Amino acid sequence: MTFRQLTVEEIGELATECGLQAVEWGGDVHVPPGDFAAARRALDTGLKVAAYGSYYRAGVSDRADLAPILETAAELDAPFVRVWAGTAGSQECPDRGPVVEALRHAVEHAEAMGTKIALEYHRNTLTDTLDSTVQLLDEVDGVVSYWQPSGGQDVFSAVHEVRTLEPVTAHVFSWGPGGFQDRLPLAERRDLWKPVLTELARDGIERNALLEFVLDDSPERFREDAKALLGWIRQ
């Protein structure tokens, strides 16, 4: 959800200028499902494809929608396809069965296409809490998790979530207690991100740390956030 107003080429130029190496291309604007020409333009930027960010809602979306998503991920050679675990939070979803079965179906078909299904870690889905996410990972073999902080999250719980989930990707941004409407410069949550990044690197497995929710959707703010992120990673 970063720079929907920019073209694929402009995003590639900006990310490269900032010294970033990877991108998650979104299926809503930049690389729609089935648009292989857009996928090739994305590859032409030279950025590593961290994932294909779909808006497939397991248990809600039509399963027929999955095929063009996976075909586009294959065109991108994306190692992960990000999906969403339904449309209701764990406390509002008494029957997890449809989401679980849809995810199992997605994992099976993704494996056949040479990619993996990754879960967005997000409110209003079955990954809205750590406990529910862990349960879902147990219920669906082969699915993996993303991680992102909640608004104003404390450091202890953030590190605990990352240590427990061992996410393949972290969406990196800083929010105040007001959440999405309370975006901050990334550097204002150095207290959170330094220990989280240390935890993400602890086992030596390569993971993606992807900038998102830039203040004012501003390229200049993005440059500042990228500088902060790379500085923390290199320390």
Short description:
This protein is an alpha/beta fold and 235 residues long. 40% of the residues lie in helices and 17% in strands.
Could you name the ranges where pLDDT drops below 50 across 5 or more consecutive residues? none
Beta content comes to: 15-25%
Give the overall form: globular
Number of helical runs? 8
Kindly name the structural category: alpha/beta
* Biggest sheet, spatial arrangement of strands: 1-2-3-4-5-6-9
Mean pLDDT: 97
Percent helix, as a range, is: 40-55%
Largest sheet: 7 strands, parallel
Radius of gyration: 17 Å
Overall strand count: 9
**Roughly how many Å apart are the termini?**
28 Å
| Order of H and E elements | HEHEHEHEHEHEEEHEH
Record the SSE blueprint.
Blueprint lengths: L7 H10 L4 E5 L9 H9 L3 E10 L8 H11 L3 E5 L12 H16 L3 E4 L10 H10 L4 E4 L7 H11 L3 E4 L1 E2 L7 E2 L5 H12 L6 E4 L7 H16 L1
Parallel strand pairs: 1-2, 2-3, 3-4, 4-5, 5-6, 6-9
Antiparallel strand pairs: 7-8
Helix pairs in contact: 6-7
Organism: Lentzea cavernae
Protein name: Sugar phosphate isomerase
Keywords: Isomerase
